[in-house]
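LOG
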Amino acid sequence: MGPFHAIREGNFKLIMIADSKKNLKGLKAIELYDLKDNVQEKKNKNLINEPGQAERIQKMQETYLDLNTYGGTTLF
């Protein structure tokens, strides 16, 4: 398993995994949490496969990649 990466946007935190620290092309979203309702990030409340979250996940991944490319924080 490769290194973990995370981004937070508002109440949501997306956890991803990549093949390596330098190669983010294989970045895969594995966990999504609404920290307002699940501050402990319990696995049974992982929203990654919930209907309606695909767009949020894609947007957060794109933001993470942009920030990683151009520098910046991944906490909003």
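LOG (cont.) second protein
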Amino acid sequence: MTEEQNTEEKEIQDLIQTMKDYLDKEYLAGKKLRNFHPKMHGLLKGSLSILPDLPEELKQGLFRNPGVYQTWIRLSNAPPKVKSDKPASGRGLAIKVLDIPGEVIEPDPIGVPTQNFLLTTSPILSAWNISLYAKAIKAVLFGLWEQIKFAVNPSHWRSIFLTFKYSKKHDNLLSQTYFSGGAFKFGPALFVKFVLTPNDPNLGYTLDQAKNENFLKSQLIKDCETKDHAFTLNVQIHKSDALQPLENTSIAWEGALIPVATLNIPKQSFDIPERIKMGEELEFSPWMGLVEHAPVGGINRARRRVYKELAAYRKSKGID
């Protein structure tokens, strides 16, 4: 390996060890929740409908032909600690598209080929390289002293500013826009980011009680038991490094949103033990997907190793 590759490998190993140490510290015995997005609001059944008549350049991979695929959709809070829904924060929406055709990069433990989309309410990832990412994670996980050490370093100030800029208070998970953060291949010639936009952005908080620590889940239960919902999956196409950088995830891409599919969420009741258990056990990774949609960039390379090793570690320590 080159010196640069050796440095990246060491940074990834240090990051993995930091997260394992946190799991051991936070969950001394029994089940260990995932490091990323541990507070789940719900696991929903849905379907992804690939739109007909896409431009020729977008007929790639999963989007080559019109079709309908069954999905699992996991909604969550983004922070690595389970906390109240009331403060400003990031939210996550992960989609697992089932039984897809084509060659996948990594097999899914569920036993069928899948395409995973990991999305959050922030259009950027505020830590734009592995070294900064590892330091930021340590600051978040290990308390006030680590946070002070991180905050006093001027080279970290932009990351801190961006984190606060894109943290928001949310009233309803089904009315948010979700972003892929990192970039992905889209066939042999294109790079894109994925953006999921709500079909009903005016949904809000409608429960006849004050917001409690878990109000987002309560609102989601009511909304899903009342009617169907939908989102549009769009792509933004990379045209220049100035407007759409591939490596620097801290810069929000400029460019049109091009619809490629519809995510449909039928009316359902999901707050049942079997679904909750499944939502905790499912693994999500941007590397579980088609070769045509391979993730790009240093942060995505780190996520490949980190997600895989931590999922295995959680299981070895008794997720069940």
